[in-house]
Amino acid sequence: MKIEIPQVKKRVHELRFPVRWGDMDAMGHVNNSQHFRYMETARIEWMCSIGCQPAPLGQGPVIVNAFCNFYQQLAHPDQLLLTTYVSDPGRTTFESWCTIERESQPGVVCAAGGATVIWVDAALQKASPLPDWMRAVVS
């Protein structure tokens, strides 16, 4: 399967975040599942910052897939810089991306991943077109 990488990603948010002691596993590094939590936290903080609050009974974003590539181990007490990007708006979806760096090593990506975001109508339980305001943000 060929993965299409977008030519242009729009940088939309930065978040500084500490590695917590409990994020580590028996191997002494951050457990891989935590990277998805870090990216989720960055994505949700960005969405809230643009007025896209969770709406369990209305319309809003839902993740339909997610991935992460791991390049360097992270450990407590690293301080992280998570940078969120968006790209490829479609009729009902857009792509979100995140890089994870140590603040002490700017520009060195320790992990990178992303997620496809689909806009859904919770009451109808189906995809809905991206609202114009969201399309403008992710374009």
Quick overview:
The protein is 18% helix and 40% strand.
What is the CATH domain class? Answer: Alpha Beta
Query: How many individual domains?
Result: 1
The residue fraction in helices comes out at: 10-25%
Q: How many beta strands in the DSSP annotation?
A: 6
Low-confidence stretches: none
Number of helices: 2
The share of residues in extended strands comes to: 35-45%
Protein name: Acyl-CoA thioesterase
InterPro entries: 4-hydroxybenzoyl-CoA_TE (IPR050563), HotDog_dom_sf (IPR029069)
Pfam families: 4HBT_2
What does this structure look like?
Helix content is 18%, strand content 40%. The chain has two helices and six strands, in the order βαβββββα. It is elongated and about 45 Å long. Strands 1, 2, 3, 4, 5 and 6 form a six-stranded antiparallel β-sheet that branches. The two termini are 26 Å apart. The longest helix has 18 residues, at 32-49. With 139 residues, the chain is an alpha+beta fold. It has a single domain (10-138), classed as Roll (Thiol Ester Dehydrase, Chain A), CATH 3.10.129. β4 and β5 (109-121) form a beta hairpin. The model has no long low-confidence stretch (mean pLDDT 93).
